[in-house]
Amino acid sequence: MDIKPDVAVRPPDDDGLRKVVIDGKSKGKVWSHRELQKVLRRAGVPPKADIDWQGGDRSVWPAHALGRRLTGAVMALGFLATAGMCTWIGMKDSFDALTFAGRVTGFLFLLMAVVEVIAFVAGFDYWRKRTMAPSGPALLLGALVEIFVGATLLLLFLANEGRPTYVLCLLLWIAFIGCGTWSLWVLCRQRVWKALRNPGRIAVGAVVSTVLVTTNLAYTQIYLPSISRPLMQGIAEIGTPSLNKAGTKMFLRVRLHLKNSGEVPVYILGSIYWIHVKLASDPNDAYKLIKPGELVIPPGRELAPGEDISTDVVAEIENPEDVDYEAVAARVEAYAFRQDRMKLDTSFTNGKWRGKLNEEGKEDDPPSPIRDKREYFRYQSTISQSSELLNLTRGRERVTVWWMYRPLPALYVEVASPGEKKPFTYHEQPWGQVDAVDRYGLARISGSMVQTPYAQLLKEAQAKRPK
Q1: Shared-domain flag, residues 201 and 87
Q2: Residue-level pLDDT at 82
């Protein structure tokens, strides 16, 4: 005679699960009658066995399978998307960020990606059998990280005045905040922290950690970029002149220097020098330009701390004994970016004349400050931020340098979004481009003008004139 097993199904608990007990031994908890049948089959219980229904018959299953699965699926999707975003940022910044703080931030995002993956896996247990006690707290931590990631990226986007081209990312970060908040509300209603021994202490630790991480991100990504400027010096030195045998030309050697006296490496975006003579007969102290040029060719060159770029140029003065000059003057000017704030594309060195740009239909991309038949050479490239975190929250930008040759040599610099078509004006030079100065340490190096009396130079040249 077969002995029938004693089967009991206990009342639903707070989560809607009903414990199955066979011959006094627990066989786990089930969500539905279908799962109950699977447990009975594995235990070898005949289909027609008597079941002691406690706290409700076979129709009482408070946890509806469809709603539970949909809830778990939405949470899993949020965790997976957050993990993907954190992995993308972390993998790039951990090894490619330009600063140590940026790389530390990258590893932090990788750690948060691991937390999100653990939460994703824990969801399969929590929304099914709940055999592992830590699965609920893992989901809670995943929801908190999801909110933190979304809020951090959104705040950085707003603080950096991110570009409209990243509107899809903006919507995704808002979705992180919304999905994480909803997940947190669902999990708090189910009191998932009950599985923890000291939930209060863990909560305090989580709050303190979040504050420290947020402070670090604010310090490295917002505060540090706003302080300190590169220290650059532009110096011109007028050397000893000489005359040709006929005395019809005076050759004047001028040494030009560009030195990085600061503590951070820089990119030289563009440079220009002028050599003038001051007209003695002009009551307004007018100057006549005798030689302009570029000091750093091609631009985009890196200049390390303490490094000096020097070059000698020779200016010619026709009929030096017949001219009425009071002095000879020289000056250097340049523009530089901090190398630890951005990455300059290699295409920047490939400048083009205005005529070539006109043939390609790119003369006014962006709209230039030169309107008539002036001649200029243009350098242009995109700018990558110092980290992928900033690339996502700030967007890529483009730097354009116009080196004007005629009628008056000058240097113009503009930093803007690649798609921005706002006309550029002289007033938007670096001293007016506040964003570029704050973000990239854009600096204008304006060397002081050096002057030497012309009579002194002519006397020195005549003394060395070949016989």
Answers
A1: yes
A2: 94
Q: Does residue 24 sit in the same domain as residue 102?
A: no
- Does one domain contain both 76 and 202? yes
Residue 59 maps to a domain:
no
Element (H, E) at 416: strand 410-416
* DSSP strand pairing (301-303 vs 287-293): unpaired
* Same domain, residue pair 353 and 389: yes
Q: Provide the pLDDT for residue 195.
A: 55
On whether residue 348 sits in a domain, the answer given is yes
> Is 368 domain-assigned?
yes
User: Is residue 290 domain-resident?
Assistant: yes
Give the count of beta carbons closer than 10 Å to the beta carbon of residue 162.
Answer: 20
Determine contact, residues 156/169, Cβ cutoff 8 Å: no
What residues pair up with 255 in beta bridges, in sequence order? 237, 312
Angle formed at CA 38 by CA 52 and CA 128, multiple of 5 degrees? 100
Which residue segment(s) compose the domain that 423 sits in? 342-440
pTM, to two decimals: 0.70
pLDDT, position 313? 92
Contact of 250 with 243, CB cutoff 8 Å: yes
Nearest to 368 by CA among 417, 406, 398, 402: 402
Beta bridge partners of 335: 270, 444
Stretches where the chain sits below pLDDT 50 are 1, 164, 202, 226, 427-428, 430-431
Cα separation, 22 vs 191, whole angstroms: 29
CA distance 152 to 315: 57
Number of continuous H segments (helices) and E segments (strands) in the chain? 10, 19
